[in-house]
Amino acid sequence: MSQTLPKLSHHMVDEAQYNLLRSVGYLNAAERLDIIDACEFGDIAHIKDKRKSGEPYITHPIAVAEILAGFRLDRDTIIAAILHDTVEDTEVSDDQLAQRYGEVVARLVDGVTKLKSSSHNKQQNKAATFHKILTATLDDPRVLIIKLADRLHNMSTLDAVRPEKQRSTAQETLDFYVPFARLMGLNDIADYIEVLCYRNLDSDMYNKLSDKLLQHGLGRNFQREAIHRYLTIVLNNLGLGSGHVKVLDNRVVIYRQFFRNRGEVNALLRHYAFEIVLDNIEACDKLAYYLIKKYQIDDSHISDNIRRPLPGGNQSLTLIYERDNDFVKVTILTTQMQQAARLGVIGAEHASDVSQSVIQASLRNMKELIDEDSLDSNSPDFMGTISTINELMDYLHSSKILCYSPQGRAYELPQGATALDFAYAVGPMVGNVAVGANVDGKKAKLGTVVKNGELVEIEVGNNSEPKAEWLGFVVTNKAREEILRWFKDLSAPDKQRHGQQALDRALKTYQKSLEDLSTSDWDNLIEWRGLSEKNALFEQISSGTLLPQLVVSRLFSDEVTRLHAEEHSHEPTQPQQLVANAAGVELDFANCCHPIYGDPIVGHLSRHGLVVHRHKCFSLDDIRKDNPYQVIQLRWRDDKALRRTENGEYDEKIRFPAYLKLSIALSDEQISEVIYHLRQLNIGVETVDVRSSDTIVHIIVRSRIHLAQGIRELRSLLGYPNIMRLYQL
């Protein structure tokens, strides 16, 4: 083959071209000739360009194309990868690419081309680029896989750039590209990129774990082989001999758990992963049933994602069990599921109907984040794009669940979403007239929190209308915006009527009604809101600026003292004032879960006022079942609320208790070091309780971010033990 290829500008470019052509043997002769032409065209376009390492620049995009050839992608994708930087970095135009290689190649190259403007800052340019990649990916998913292969090659060759640049590139990749790839089902390539992110984020941590993996490599191989032999014997004994057992490289999971402080090094080294490919779903169930009985696997370690695929559409049946002190993860799937899992959205035609439905659920959610008119190639709205990308980042990093309609259509929701959120995910014509729900065949209220995999049927009433108190418990932006849109279109008298009715319903929580309110009660409320009369208060309720649940909490809590934020504006910020949508209401912070600034929070309407809990607090489970409307969504004010001085210093009065469990028993010397290093970060240490095999440290912090800084400092100081935050002592 080397004799038939044209000589290019440098022997390294010749080698890159040769390796690529060896990888695209699955394409026909005409397509391979087009790829040879693209290598030559790109070589000429980038002739003056060099990489930081000094190599000819064109070696990078040709290497990106070779990565994609490993996925057996089509001619257009391979050529677009070879030429993906030409429009951005050279004199080549979109029109030239379209004329020479076709409109599809030109469109793919445009999708991965950065947006830059000298009149905008780095953050705005980056947001605009993310926005463009997202929009282009939703139009053609091949844009994303080109960008991922580009990142994969860049991340593996970052040694030539500054350490700060290595870290920032790794963080950006981990924040945006990796979760985006997983949501699109591109887990194979995401795994490789994620490991490289950790290597470039913190080389000391990475090297510590890598050295451990090398030290224990022989022992791990021995164990893997033993488990592999055993699983093969099980298949034969069950009459499933046509199945195939494959050892999985689970390093990405080990690195992820280690970097995210989810386990000790020595325990993580005893985790093994296997994939078993069988002929059909019945065979998958048969093997799973045997292993569940054999190892008494409890429900928390069984994930049936065959019937209920994961976000990204991946289908499998996953079991985790303990065997001789080893933790074994077995992923059971069919050949069709394995093929679909490799390329996610790009190989969606290989996926089952339910898997495709799940991928479409993610695509719908992301499309709703994009304002189609907010950005075009001629006049990008750089400022508007930043807020869109911030919403996208929140979405990518939120815990997601999938619920299903009776027709089997999947809807992706954030964890903590309610049946009403599901109704609005189906559409506003359903949400606006919802009156109740059936969840897995059982009657449920609209405020009921739905769980992953549940089948949800919404009951509707022809004459039903949205209610203002719904704004207190819906979680999704879509539901909130649809409810607000409905109220916005009402006349002023109708808004007042709806606000009045909502307040009356909220009062029933305390066995009260509007007739029970005295003149002084009304005066108190009107003064609190800075209004002139009742109707204005009702309009605030129906406009979403005031929750009726908070009005009731202010009126009927047992506390005598109430906070008036306006009266305390000259005083240092109090923790209660950090909750954005509960100003003027008596707040308490729950001792059952110890929420701190930055935790996702909800409020429980109790006789003692509004009690702030972490949104996952176990003590709310029963309340949510019986009285879901008593739990309302809360949000913190932004970080500026913590800063009181012009030079950005933090208010010393904003202090939250937190409890850490260290997986080692500290010595006296280590205790002194811990206290010293935490105080350097302005973290207070209340008590240190050393026990036989661990240590409990009670600290005082400003926020969740402040706490994370302290945990990182302690892990580095103490040799990377596992450190857990305890929510209840």
Automatic annotation (TrEMBL):
GO terms for molecular function: GTP diphosphokinase activity; guanosine-3',5'-bis(diphosphate) 3'-diphosphatase activity. PROSITE patterns: HD (PS51831). Transmembrane segments: none annotated. InterPro entries: Beta-grasp_dom_sf, HD/PDEase_dom, HD_domain, NT_sf, TGS, TGS-like. Keywords: Hydrolase. CDD domains: HDc (cd00077). Residues 57-155 form the HD domain. GO terms for cellular component: plasma membrane. It comes from the Bacteria. GO terms for biological process: guanosine tetraphosphate biosynthetic process; response to starvation. Pfam families: HD_4, TGS. Belongs to the RelA/SpoT family. This is GTP pyrophosphokinase. The lineage of its organism: Bacteria, Pseudomonadati, Pseudomonadota, Gammaproteobacteria, Moraxellales.
